[in-house]
Structure formats: C-alpha cells, structure tokens
C-alpha cells in the first residue's frame, strides 16, 4: 500500500518536472520578442517601425530590456539619445 503511494508521488513529481521543462523550452525559444527599428532623419523626425514617433516613446522602448531595439540616425541629424542601460547613440 505504501509502495503504491510512493510510486504515485514519484510519477506525479516526474510529470511536474517534465511539464516545467517543456514549458521552459517553449518560452525560451519563442520568437515573440518585440523588435523596434528607430530611425531619426535629417530633419530630426523620429520613425518607429516606419511610423512617426516621439522622444518619450523612444525612451520608453529603450527602458524595456525585453525588446530588441535598433537605433539609426541620418548623418545630418542632430537629435541624439542617451539611455541608462543601453548607453548613448552619439559620440
């Protein structure tokens, strides 16, 4: 009787570990990570994924370390950004 109880507890523990392992593989390899391409043109207009954006939105996105963030500037643009964890985009 006790042998069956221990066997049931063991199989339950194995099932929980297997489900947790499968979930970690799925969540780690999930391609659902957000990606933002930021571009500042020569007139210092900001575009986020091709749509007009604001400086506040750029700082909000840069502060979220769970997103991929790519910032490009036109050579004549004077607008620059400095972020706490990502550094500055200007020299």
In the predicted model, the low-confidence regions spanning at least 5 consecutive residues are none
What is the ordering of alpha helices and beta strands?
Answer: HEEEHEEE
Largest sheet: 4 strands, mixed
How big a fraction of the residues is strand? 15-25%
How large is the radius of gyration? 24 Å
Describe the structure.
- This protein is α+β, with helices and mostly antiparallel strands and 91 residues long.
- It is 40% helix and 24% strand.
- The protein has two helices and six strands.
- The protein has helices at residues 2-28, 55-63, and strands at 35-40, 46-48, 51-53, 68-73, 82-83, 87-88.
- The strands form two sheets. The chain has a four-stranded mixed β-sheet, covered by helices on one side.
- Strand 5 (82-83) and strand 6 form a beta hairpin.
- The protein is rod-shaped.
- The termini are far apart.
Index terms:
91 residues; alpha+beta; four-stranded mixed sheet; two-stranded antiparallel ribbon; 2 helices; 6 strands; 40% helix; rod-shaped
Task: Summarize the helices and strands and which ones pair or pack.
Elements: H1 2-28, E1 35-40, E2 46-48, E3 51-53, H2 55-63, E4 68-73, E5 82-83, E6 87-88
Parallel strand pairs: 1-4
Antiparallel strand pairs: 1-2, 2-3, 5-6
Please provide a brief summary of the model.
About 40% of the residues lie in helices and about 25% in strands.
């Amino acid at each position: 009787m006790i042998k069956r109880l221990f066997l049931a507890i063991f199989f339950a523990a194995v099932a929980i570990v297997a489900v947790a392992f499968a979930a970690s593989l799925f969540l780690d390899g999930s391609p659902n990570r957000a990606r933002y391409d930021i571009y500042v043109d020569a007139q210092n207009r900001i575009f986020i994924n091709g749509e007009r954006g604001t400086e506040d939105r750029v700082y909000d996105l840069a502060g979220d370390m769970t997103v991929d963030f790519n910032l490009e500037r036109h050579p004549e643009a004077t607008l620059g950004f400095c972020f706490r964890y990502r550094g500055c985009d200007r020299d």
